[in-house]
Amino acid sequence: xxxxxxxxxxxxxxxxxxxxxxxxxxxxxxxxxxxxxxxxxxxxxxxxxxxxxxxxxxxxxxxxxxxxxxxxxxxxxxxxxxxxxxxxxxxxxxxxxxxxxxxxxxxxxxxxxxxxxxxxxxxxx
Length: 125
Fold this sequence. Notes:
Layout: E1 2-8, E2 11-20, H1 25-36, E3 42-53, H2 55-70, E4 74-78, H3 82-90, E5 98-100, H4 103-108
InterPro entries: STAS_dom, STAS_dom_sf
Protein name: STAS domain-containing protein
Pfam families: STAS (PF01740)
């Protein structure tokens, strides 16, 4: 698990790369805590580099959202890979957390870029 910090449109972004799992959540939690202790009203977590996210990783994302709310910060998740998106959906987090299709959409809080809580209906015809 690695991570990096950058800004998009003046919003702090934490990009996660690798596997967010029981073996790695404790390495990234201090970085998230540090960012949540800052002065910024929004934190975007860029999930585009995540290969996988197990139940411990999902629990960490859920806990980060609760900690952000307590700190008066809005947490926005962005660009989850298909496996991570499916894990979020299976755990019921996709309907509760603010998850955007792109980092730019998350930085702008673009409602059109929010991921749907359910699978999109595919028209076979």
